[in-house]
Amino acid sequence: MRFPSVVGPELAGVIDLPEDEVRGWGLFAHGFTLGKDSPAASRVCKQLAREGIGMLRFDNLGIGDSDGDWGDGSFTVKVQDTVRAAAFMAERGTPVDLLVGHSWGGAAALAAAREMPGLRALATIAAPVDPSHVERQYDSVLDRVLSEGSHEWFVGGRTLVLKRAFVEDVRKAHLRDRIGELNLPLLVAHSPTDSTVDIDNAAEIFQEARHPRSFISLEGADHLLTARGQAQRAAHIISAWADQYLDEPRP
């Protein structure tokens, strides 16, 4: 299925459907350049669907099967397209109960949640408290991007164009106030051995959030949840935690 990005091009998504009783509907925001078919996105969503929560996972601008140029995106666009995805789900009669974000997508989920009417619960996995954490991934080309306006960046086996506007937008994104203003149950999941986004980020997110808030340590998991069974375990934990909120009347 496809729906338009806030900047125009169509985004491609997949809904993992429960085979039996539907407990609720959810939306997954993938990591920085990962896409809907990355291990974290696909395995978490498929496991949640097996446990009765239908999940939409979609490719952000210029990623995977989505149209457009990745370089025309930004953190702001990612947040707005996450909100747009939730609106798409509502329009098809399956409004989003649960929002799950992995890595940079977790930061986007924290920023987008308050713009999703009816959302019941939010879970982050390995999320940074500061979206500009991603600068570590493109620091080798950062100076040229800022001086020249854009520069090619090779990542994940492909070449993307990183633009100055993207960098500046990320630097202006501040999450702490938004986390503190969340009026939602929040689950913060993070591995103590995450070498990409340190677990101190989880501690800061947890400290900024209001109750009800929960923290779960994903012992043994790597940042991308590629180790066997780790994504499914994270999904099972999220499913069990969210159960009490899925039965509540919709706000």
UniProtKB/TrEMBL annotation:
InterPro entries xrefs: AB_hydrolase_fold, FrsA_esterase, Hydrolase_4
Family label: Belongs to the AB hydrolase superfamily.
Record's protein name: Alpha/beta hydrolase family protein
GO molecular function (one): hydrolase activity
Pfam annotation, one family: Hydrolase_4
Assigned keywords, A-Z: Hydrolase
EC primary class: hydrolase
EC code(s) of this entry: 3.4.-.-
Domain of life: Bacteria
Ranges where the Serine aminopeptidase S33 domain occurs: 27-147
SUPFAM superfamilies (alphabetical): alpha/beta-Hydrolases (SSF53474)
PANTHER family in UniProt: DIENELACTONE HYDROLASE DOMAIN-CONTAINING PROTEIN-RELATED (PTHR22946), POLYKETIDE TRANSFERASE AF380 (PTHR22946:SF9)
